[in-house]
Design brief:
By secondary structure, this protein is an alpha/beta fold. The chain is built from 12 helices and 7 strands. The longest helix is centred in the middle third of the chain and has 18 residues, at about 125-140. It starts with 7 loop residues before the first helix and ends with a strand. The structure holds S-adenosylmethionine. S-adenosylmethionine binds near residues 32, 56, 238 and 239.
């Protein structure tokens, strides 16, 4: 949800054109899957990547840190995890078996996640193995792509299979930093040439959509609630999804220490589904960014993300706000 993969050529072009070919440091405060961080990741650029969800933090560490885990060792462990044969029910299968996953897959996921905690020799190894598990889970989830709900009929019956994540050790800058904090806290600690911001823009919380992966990443066997068996998410609700998002955004911009600030922000205002409407108006964005520097807005047409309910708008334009800090 909100992944910027398709927009990367546009984002890269605008950022490199305005900041030069060599960027010393690039900070991605709402990094999500890390697609934008990875697009700027090279030996010469220090990447600072942050997301408040642990289910994003683990993959960010896996793909962006030059950790010392031995790949052959990790490969062996993945082979072992794939060979496990589940029998009894466990924490995971009792909650998500027969709904989000087939009962067999759910039992195996629970068994694998328990085993990861036992066999990991280091934090980084655990992060890689949990990332491998979450990616494999996503492929066989009985959903429409997020975990707010499951499909009525069980459509994904393939057995789960973990793979070794593609680790790009050679191109990773040794100074990269990955954080797992609220963006408004993280911003006070970092300084960078480029600050890229991709906050949620409507009232759909990422912690609601990805509660299940978050539960697996945390693995404290927390109580779950409701039809979708969600964990308590009060502490990870994003302030960018509420109506006073512009106040939170202004606070972040005022605390930012960067030469160039880029913001991806969707402009949906009058959607039939109120939850899809953006929380910060263009007027507020322009006012806030103009206080910090000189503003330009770049646009490209891009198919809008829909949850399957709203009609996709072919006129939709995706914007990148650029503030050259003065
Ligand atoms: C639009 S997505 C980012 C997508 C990302 N650019 C990509 O290409 O995958 C927004 C991300 O911000 C995170 N997030 C939301 N509110 C946050 C906050 N207050 N602090 C840190 N991260 C937050 C969400 O967990 C989500 O991963």
């Amino acid at each position: 949800m909100g992944n910027k993969n398709k927009l990367l050529p546009f984002i890269k072009k605008i950022i490199y054109e305005n900041c030069g070919d060599v960027i010393d440091s690039f900070c991605d405060l709402f990094a999500g899957t890390g697609s934008v961080s990875q697009a700027f990741n090279n030996k010469h650029t220090k990447i600072i990547s942050n997301d408040q969800l642990i289910s994003n933090y683990f993959p960010l560490c896996t793909f962006l840190l030059n950790n010392d885990s031995d790949i052959t060792n990790v490969q062996e462990k993945i082979k072992y995890l794939n060979s496990l044969k589940p029998k009894a029910n466990n924490y995971f299968s009792l909650r998500y078996g027969g709904t989000f996953y087939t009962l067999d897959n759910a039992k195996k996921i629970g068994l694998i996640r328990n085993a990861i905690d036992k066999i990991s020799d280091s934090h980084s190894e655990k992060q890689i193995l949990v990332t491998s598990l979450m990616y494999a889970m996503d492929k066989i989830a009985n959903t429409v792509g997020h975990y707010d709900a499951y499909r009525k009929s069980m459509n994904y019956t393939k057995p789960i299979k973990l793979r070794l994540p593609k680790l790009e050790k050679k191109v990773i800058n040794h100074n990269n930093v990955i954080l797992n904090e609220d963006a408004n806290t993280a911003v006070k600690k970092v300084k960078s040439d480029v600050l890229y911001l991709d906050p949620p823009y409507n009232s759909r919380h990422y912690c609601d959509a990805y509660h299940l992966l978050e539960n697996v990443a945390i693995w404290k066997k927390l109580p779950t609630f409701g039809k979708a068996e969600k964990i308590d998410r009060k502490h990870i609700k994003s302030r960018y999804c509420f109506k006073d998002a512009s106040i939170v955004f202004e606070e972040l911009i005022m605390n930012a220490k960067a030469k160039h600030i880029f913001l991806s922000y969707n402009s949906t205002r009058n959607s039939r589904h109120g939850r899809s409407n953006s929380k910060i108006s263009d007027y507020a964005i322009k006012k806030i960014l103009t206080k910090k520097g000189k503003l330009r807005i770049f646009e490209t047409s891009h198919p809008e993300f829909t949850t399957g309910k709203s009609v996709s708008n072919s006129e939709h334009v995706e914007r990148l706000f650029y503030c050259k800090v003065m």
